[in-house]
Queue: 3 jobs
Job 1
Amino acid sequence: MDLAAHQRTLLALFRSSYEVRPDDDPYIRKVACSDDLKEARGNIFLWRVWVLERTAPLTFALLKGRNLVRRTVCAFIKGHNISPFRETHAPAFLEALSSHHESLIASVAQFELALLKVKQGDPGFHVVHWDIEPHAVLNNLARRLPFDAEVPKGSYEIHISRELPSLFRIVRVAQMH
Amino acid sequence: MLAQANTTIPVAIGTTYEGRDPKLLERMLPLVDYIEVTPETIAEVHDHKLALSHDVMTELKNIEKETQIVVHGVGLSIGSHEGWSSNYFQLLDALLEQIDVAWHSEHLGYTKVDGQHLGIMLALPKTDQVLDMVCERVIKIQERYPLPFLLENIVHVIPDFPGDYSEAGFLNALVNRTGCRLILDVYNLQCDEHNHGFDISGFLNEIELTKVRELHVACGVEHNGFLLDVHSKLTRSSTIRLAQNVVRRSEGSVELLVYEFMPEAVPGLGRNAIAQELRRLRLAFGD
């Protein structure tokens, strides 16, 4: 057997990027139409969900509250070569969501990513902009509580640094008129 | 603090610890002889590079006098056609420089293809070609690290490739050609039995149980009719009975039984239940 071809085809089957042909090896055809493959793909999704729920809890709670977990995690799996090193998942996931089209998701992801870096010893000073009042949002996400969709708008920054007593502070930015 | 499994053969008890939960560690330490550490799960990302967590390594250094440590990797990918993961060895090197380890181990499978991660671990085709490849790599590992090296049977998440060997025959050939020893994950055997009709009895009759040095027990959940290898539950009685059966037949080769659980399962299980599970295992393998 050609081990490289065998492994490449299985990888493609797991990524749903391979259409089985009639001349494929009978084993590959068997795997492709098996319930096992379908279940294993589901397991990969569940593994990611469990790890991200633990390692990116604020962003995950926000996505969960908006019923966006499945769609977002599936897109992340499809678009990234995710390492088996579990602690790499959260930074990659948060980096990906830091440019999310919804500003609140982007802000929470940027904040959580910066906090993660600082906790791991990053000496940098990070600034994340928010266009709503962050206290209630972060407090409720941390406590897994729903929050009012009509959070007061405003211009805020969260500063994140290991030099700050609680690693971050929320600052209201004065409007320039 | 060695336990016994209804025989005069002593079996030590161990469990998983992935750091960052000192309250859990405090509960577990008096109940175990070994702590199993996985380098990948105690690694952190610094400047886009993986490195062992300084905090977790400090925890491990602090318990070295109270317990023995074994290393159990998940990211080596010994069966990838293009070669294994060098990242894994960097972490293992760093870990071995800092703490004393009784032995180290990995899984007989692969997690990546051409550098692309599968997101899951797959079993290898049991062919002569693959046996040659894995044996060559095991020997290189044994030359690189002056420690016993063990390989573990993994769960089969897809149907098995029709190869040249049975499951037990492949493992027997591997240990006899390289001198490495085995971890037998008895919960994985139960998953394979449930999901694929695997013949555990026939496997145990064929495998050289005297080459098994460590057993793993765990439990997952049933989903869509499949029994999943997710390490999220307390061990089932049937798993313990199977482990006891292996110990009795191993002629004293099994030195350690490890209860595995993933950190994501701790909030659901609770620290008390994990401690109770370790007491239960000690009792089950006690006289």
Job 2
Amino acid sequence: MIIKYIIYSFLLLFSIETIAQTNSLSSSPYSLYGLGQTNEISTGKINGLGKSGIAMPSSTFINNSNPASFASIPLNSFFYDFGFKAETNILMENGRQNSNLITNFSNIAIAFPLSKTSGFGVTLTPFTSVGYTLSNIESNIEGSAYSFYTDVDGGGGINNLKLNYGYALNNKFRLGLTGSVLFGKITQTQTSTIPLIANNTVSTSTISLYDENYYSGFRLGSGLQYDISKNMTFGAIVNLPATLNADNDRTATSSTETIESSVSISNIDDFKLPLELGFGFQSKFNESFSLTLDYKKNFWNNTNQSDLLGTFVNQDFFGLGLQYSAKKSIPKFFNSLEYRAGFNYDNGNLEVNNKRVKNQSINLGIGIPLNSSSNSMINIGYSYGSKGQITNGLIKENYHLLSINLSLEGIWFQKRKID
Amino acid sequence: MIIKQVIAVPLVFFAILFLFLVSCEEDTTLPVGEDWIDVSTKVYFIDTLTVKATTFKFDSIVVSNASRLLIGAYTDPVFGLSKSKSYVQLYNSVYSLDNDAVFDSIALILKYDNYFYNDTIPTQKFNIYRVTQKIEPDDETDAFYNTTEFTYDSTPLASESFLTYPKKEDSLHILLNNTFGKALFDDIKDNDINNSEEFLYRYKGLLIEADHSNTTILGFSYDSFLRIYYTIKDETDDVSNEFDITFNSSNSFNNISSDTQGTYFESLTDQDVYLPSYLTNNATYIQAGTGIATRIEIPYIEKINDIPGTGTILDANLKISIKQSSSTEILFTNDDLNIYIYNKNGEVLGSLTDSAGETVLGLIENESSEYNIITYSIPLKYFLDLKLSTINDDNLFLAIYSQNYNDSLDRYIFNGEKASNDLKVKLELTYAIYDN
């Protein structure tokens, strides 16, 4: 049976892998920067809890925030998580406004126990995503009074295939290892429409540059979780710096003739990911409430990277979540639901004109159990947030984000009581 | 439980696949954030590349397949005495005359074809000679050249002064020597000539030449003919009749030349001689028929490769303008120019084309009668691409030449590279760098 599940699951993973690469999951001009916008949607319940989950166990769902949590997968459980998201964002820049709607896949994950004290999981999430369209960028034709106009489209993204392994040293202390295979393609098409004036008629010529930037790399990390008491857990993670190797493939086409069909250049820089440290805390109280708190720091300064738009700077992330679930002893539908609220803030890894592109959002979430005999649940999260600001040439981006995670649990090898 | 899961897993799988298929991205055009991107394409407009304009003269030009007979002469203030004469071969399908026919007279009837160049008002004079050599094209090239000559009897069959009205009248009527006419008449009547072979053996053709004091060049169509007037005496009445002998257009051609003595073109004794525009009144020249043409050289086109990055020529046009007041109503220029690519050895490689292989012409881009400005634009993208991709690119030149070069004396005087900035010959290039 296990083999069958694994085959199903991997089939699923690899069918999605190809799709995940090609779809652009973002529509934000901020995704021009670096490798695009970092994916913020995680698995399971996290999305409603201010993205805080470093100290949470994976006892009822896949918690992708900390590999140590995989040690707490119950012995007979097999977890799946399928995530979808719908995002609409409103962009504002000095009186101009624009909005986009995007719906797409946000993750697919499986996790299962290896033994009583260890668990393993595979998660595929977008790591970053790119999606932007800039129209009619005016450039001067040097040596003349004329201009030409360029439309720019960006797409693609980096996928994160993450393998998590958790091991419980004892019933209080869990350790985890994680390895991420990061891969993907970021594309940009620049189409320039150039006016040509001859014989009193204006014709146009177009030059299209299609850049395919392939990135691939591997990142290691580890985590721990420690139950301070029955109701209190502490967690910590570390993700090591990594380098994503970059390859560029540029295709240039011109409407007036076929210019070199493909120009391969490798003049783009590899992308460095910084050291990431994170700490988390979870506390349950009053039986129905659970409070989670995360702090993460990304040491971007050490990567010495900059972009046309600005420089990469150290980034702090705070997440806070609160969950309420009624006592399960009263079997009413509304009592079986989980209610969540959260807040997260990060000061951004991007500094433009000495201003940081900050990101903050408030989240609300609800978990609807699918049946009473398992932990299967539909988790719906809603976030309202903003990025950037209108001043200093930045863009303010407000977004509504709806996430749906199907967090499913299959039970294996459970002996039937009636046998 | 297990069975349920086995069903559930694929169900979920397909549910997800379905969601993928319907997942959408609605992306409206974004007007914001445009300062954030570096446009990789750079476009340059360059009009400072060196253009070398010179005048040269083709040793000879092929004049077979001309569309008209060009006969006349005039003295051009720039080009000197310019003249054209026509060698004409005659033939017919019928060679028979009534036995009672009596010769009256013989005349050459030249039909105007509307072309004329320079002043038609003064009296013109044509001399008509009897050609004494078989008119036939060059053995090797099967062509007539503007320089081709045949021997003729120096006693003219006619020497006619006339006033010309090429627009008002439809033909010019020139009476020829009666002795010549009578002899031809008798040859046919007496059945000494029964077919073209016998006819051409005795009558090789005519040379129609203009007097050097003429003031105009006239165009005549090949529908012109030689006409014999005769009378058939009847018992009661005399009946006037005509016998026409037509022109053989394939063995008739124009010999076009100019007397360059005392002109800029005196030194153009060989095709290898190029007169820089700064030595010829800051101008370059074209004269159809005589082989005077303008050569354009773009000697340093590879300099555009000095612009960093990989680029492509998007568009290139040579702008060349008519020297002011040099194109007049009677010394007119045409709307189109023929452009040829030729090499250092003077071999014409072919007409200038665009990248798709279509022949392109120099076309009038700017015409202002008020300021007397006529500017032609010649698309050079293909030529420059060819030059840039050819190893010995300095071997390739352009020759700008007149249309109707085998049957007109149309002349063009162009501003050279030293003329004022808006009139001088220049290359306008739009160049794009797409990789740097």
Job 3
Amino acid sequence: MARLRGSGPPTDVGGVRDDAMSTFLQISFSGLATGAIFAIAAVGFALLWQTAGAINFAHGEFIALPAVIMLILGEQRPTLGLPDWVPVVGGTAVAGPLPEMGIIVAFVLTIPLAVLVLGYVFKVSLVDRLLTPGGDDIPLVIASLGLALLIREYLRVEFGARPEQFPSTFGTARWRPGGIPISADDVGVLAVCIAVILALQMFLRRTYTGRQMEATAQSPHTARLLGIPVDRMVFYTFAINAVLVTVAALLVAPTTHARWDGGLSLSLVAFTAAIIGGFNQVRGALVGGFVVGLLQNWSAYYLSSAYREAIPLLLLILVILWRPQGLFGVAEERRV
Amino acid sequence: MTKRMCWSKLPAVLVVGALAATACGGDDDTDASSGSGGGDEGAAECPDGDSVLMAMPYEANQPAGENWRLGVEMAVAEVNDDGGILGCQIEIDPQDTQGDPDVSRQVVADQAEDDPYVFLGTVFSASTIVNMVESQRAEIPMFVGAEAPSITDRDENGDDDFIYRTSFGVDTAADKFVRYMVDQGVGSVDLIYKNDEFGAGGREAYVAAFEEAGIDVGLDIQVQPDQTDQSAEVTQLAGGDADAIFVFMTEIETAAFLDEYQAQGLDKPLYGGDVLSAASTIALVQPGAADGTVTHAGLNASAPVFAEWKEAYAEFHPDADPPDHNSIKGYTAVYIVKEATERIGEFDNSQFADTLYCADLTVEDEPSLLLDVSYDGNGDIDRESYIVSVVDGVGEITETVPPLDNLDERGC
Amino acid sequence: MSATTSTTGVLEHRQDTIPERDRGHLSWPLAVAAVAATTLVVLLPLGHSQLAGIMWLWGVALVGVIGLNLWLPVESWNGIVIKWTSLAGAVAFLIVFPIGRTNATLIDLGVFVVFAIVCIGLNLTYGFAGKVSLAQAGFLGIGAYVSVLLDTGRDVAVAGFEATLPNLPFLLAIVVAGLTCMAFSVLIGFPALRVQGPWLAFVTLAFNLLVFLVLNNEVGLTEGSRGLRAIRSDLVVFDIDLFETRNYYYFCLVFLLAATVLVWWVVRSPWGRAFKALRDNPARAASLGVDIRTYTLLAFSIGAGLAGVAGALYARLIEYIEPRAFFIGQSFDFFLATVIGGLGTLVGPFIGVSFITVLTDRLRFTGDYYRVWFGLFVVVMMLVAPKGVAGSFDQLRSWLRDRRRVVPGAAPDAAPEVGPEVET
């Protein structure tokens, strides 16, 4: 007989299980940690929609892609392999296995790549062509659906259908103060997520460039009259989004794993969190993420696990109908 | 005036026609002479020139389907190097079903037009339940990796003589494992399962087996596909008072569950479907989180009997993940076809039922079967299986479960 | 995005400037050529021949038919003859083509036919009335489940209630499926009164997800993820045995033709004008006395009803339904098919659905990458033809017409009139 877990009756597991408050705190904290993941996934989506008017249904794939790239760069995963074209592009030197450089170095290397491909190329090749001022936004929605399919299937063919474990940036330490399990990863993701979103909010509100971007978002026409380099401001939006999805990949992938089909569910929570929180406020994504994470856990525990995903969706519908600026957004007239 | 815009698009209707026509043009070459039953001149006659065509519908976008394909490819390469089946080289027609039942049905129907000798696939039960209708219609044997009980249920399928499993149906597995659990003194279990076709199907089979064995089912909790935060569900489990917890989910959800279970410091025994102790799950969890889990495995690559095969596999697919049970299923499927064909003596796929039903296929006949296997009268199999437990992050065989040996109750 | 983004501009076409009465002379040789070319297009693929020469002939005939349609002014006698010939040819194609084909082709074509009905519905809701809906797969699912539950006489249990469902005749089950979807569509029709554009897209998306969750979780009603079988073996309608896939295909085709005629009729009726007024300028429509509430709900319910009917047909075509078939991915597919085909055109859904069914399937010869190519195709289509294939046809036609009109020296009309003018 192999080692089984303690086979005695589970009389006193931690000693705090009967405490309803402790249970509540436990699932609430877990909900917040998950909510932070939702928030960091949502913030880029909200930013693009708010400041460039671009609704990107490929947002989840934008997060899944850098996760895989980081894994290839940062850790030797023979099972991931390299696309056939890599040696062709980079010459024979790249053909051999890459050195193992650690996930943080890989993250730093991935950021410029992401800014180039998910920021610049995405903007120039798709958004600029499809999103004409005052025009219809549906062609871009359709194109992003196609793009999502393209990225997803490419990841599958190139890197396989199997999920890969992604190392946590914050280590695997765990504590159980008062019976509530807390992991270093949870705390780290929460902290980084809040810091990133608040910093972004500060940047948009307090810095000169940020104000210019805000002005561009509110009225490109007026902004241009005021001498703001509108096109460059829009590009900044895409660049920031590219950085945000890379950060999101770094924080999300330890939980969701690096895999080809992780994008759709990430997109869905991103839409939900962004809209519930109020997409015209970057910090709305934070609030929305927390609300969704908490609601899911509360409804799973106190109502029914089957409908844990349904409650945030109902809230989403209610919010759109009665408070389209989001629960915590500020009502203002915006025309992009 | 009003008609103008609508009807003026008609040319485009014809474009659609053009697409459909080019698309379906390939249907015409179904040549009656290539029928598999035509080989009465002798055993050496290959159905398709000097080769034999096998159709492989599989889930290219799922780990299960991908591993199935790798197993099949390896076996096919071996057989072909060895001179083929009855001197005929095997040709594989792999087609992606996207794990989607209605796509899989179209794929199988399309492949049936080329009159393949057999179908190898599919692995997903929901797909198989749908596409086996087409293999039955075309009267082509189909070797599946799917485990849902209903696939070989003759009442539900109108006496399908063309469906053969390559592993246990989950009901057979449940019978065997529940016996073991009773032996271990488990009197009651709390269930947690994934709310999809795989998890719900497994739960159903096991609940029936628990009931029969007199094990009480306490909590019955589901998690949603892709759900990585299971704290609420595990907290509910922590409040249960059963002897053990039974887990039936796929890799991602199982990994999330094990991590949360460890984080909350729970220590009831964990039993489950074979994913719980599979190498692909252990690869995703925190160190130590899977230790102590016990599962029943119809096929488990860590069994000593597969050791040699595993090395060959690693050599053949140097870039692939280590093989799992689906790789073994795919691999042995090819050899079951080979053995059956050699017993028939010619490529006559209408004789598969006569040859395989109630027959024993042994490793002495064909070493690459890896394990002895017996078919019952419905296309289900019986053979020995394993109890696997995870020790220090590695699945270890702790016990070998003998075959049920009840073929006479199962249509023989 | 402002909440009042409309699709103005998507579907504006030049007014045809040829007066109604002046239809010119009917050229008999031309008409005969058109009929001959259409006949070739329809009949040639029938043969069991792969001869390259014949396929070339077929290609030439097809180009001929398309060219004639593009070249001739649509309101001239010649244009009328040719477009009716082409229509008859297209219908004949769907009827004649499956003759002698095998089961697999019939199922492929059957899926095409069923999805075309769904997209025709979506085209009415979105293309003509301007209301985005990403819930079409949800309605397909509701229709499928309602029909299967009602014509198999099952015992169900939901939330403590138990009942034995009736065993309705198939035709009646189809009707009930359609009506149920129309009833549900009111649920998302009301949000459509308040929000537009992307907001509406997200509301309908959430609705579709909720439908999926209910189908997946209410095991007592739907068997959940195990799915429901819906074998056709006992299905006989008007003494026709629908178990035979061929018969069932034609059965579905009848519904497709009916749906096409229905939408064609709706679009030319006063309703259709109201829909387009709603799409192009809701405020103006309201001031002109269009009852916005009624027409918005109507647009949704017709689209959803068609999806429901299609769902009933789909269930019996595949003979098995499970919730994942009605997940939002399918809604995305329907949406992009409708847009790529060409919004607000009768033929658009046909073209679009051929892309999501026939094209994806026929890309398989490219191996593992076939879905990648399809994604790329969608992106490129949006870049080169954001109005869809049918929209591009119209642009091409007016370009050709402008060029020809310049030749006689007649001054072209002033700037094309753009406005909420109703045109069909």
